Give the backbone structure.
Amino acid sequence: MTCPQCGKTIDVDERFVKWCEYCEWKLDPPTRDPKAARQRNKEDTARRRGQRLFEELRHSPLTKPGPSRVRVAALAVALVIHALTIAILLLGVFILATNFPTFFGFVVGGALILVALLIHPRLGGVRSGTVILPREGAPALYVLIDRVSNDLGAKPIDLIRLDAGFNAGYGQLGLRQRRVLSIGLSLWNVLSDQQRVAVLAHELAHQVNGDLSETVVVGSALRTLSEWYRALRPAPWRPGSGSVFEFLETIAQLLTRALFRILRIAVEQIYNLEERLLFRSGQRAEYYADRLAAQVASSTSMIESLDILYLDQPCSLAVRYAAQREEPDVWAAQLRFIHDLPAKEWERLRRLDAKRGAGIDATHPPTNLRIELLKSESQYPPRIELAGTESVAISQEMASGFALVGERIAARFAG
């Protein structure tokens, strides 16, 4: 095919987007969708901020984020969020205790206590129905993770949970603050052994990379704000039919929806403020976690694992489409798809991601900048390598998890 913009001959695969690798025609088609346009604007803003930080880090030593005024301010905002809940609870208890057993005490004091319980800090947790891989069920995998943790100076994890995502994650959850490692099987399935070590090392490095959002106070504050925002979503509108009582109900709905909207905007602004305060130190911490992971698994493996992140959408869709076709093994279908993926399509995804400046999410730097920074640094050999026998043992341990998650994907998308 001839590119209509630059006139050069380009290869075309009808299964994928037609685009030109020379002039980037159709690399990122314009959109008329208002939501998509707003998202692009947010991505552009994040890209510019991320680019400035990258330029600073490229010309200065990359170190673990340390104390700063901005980090203190982020911590202060988190403390205020938690203090609000405590203040409402104490006020409710005080009113109830000093007015017991009056109607006022029960109604006002009880209402305040109920509000405090509803907005309590969210410490996270493992939801019921989550696919769990306990230590006794996967000794080889836990031994590998313990080796990586010891090398990083991190603490051993308590639990591994598996899901269908194209990602991995680490967090301290619940009242006991259990250390939980999440493994997305759509990602794990397409990684090589050493790339898996790199991904594990990056996630475990969140214990020691100075990321303030991983601390109990700040992390729970962010989760709490997210829950408040969802809880303040107005209920569906229920139009009345004309009676006096339904008219009053309509007025009440209008007032309630207006109040919820105001509170929701306020919560959103506080969340955005906290994100802005955490932006620089959080992204620096991510870059630092990449460095630590490269030292454990090798720079090459860390760079390769980041490069695979560009395949998020096609890999996730490959699993979904395999389920819709009712294939017996969605994971094998995903591997076949990746094996057949044209190099040109992978390159398009790299360029598109670099143009948009996108990361995995708002807390991560753009993937292309993470790769570029690792390439610009000293190249590290692996300190921990996954032997063939270990890899086989881990695959056997995870087989039941793959099967269970695959069944859930099939149940969701089949037919």
Notes: The mean pLDDT is 87. The chain has 14 helices and four strands.
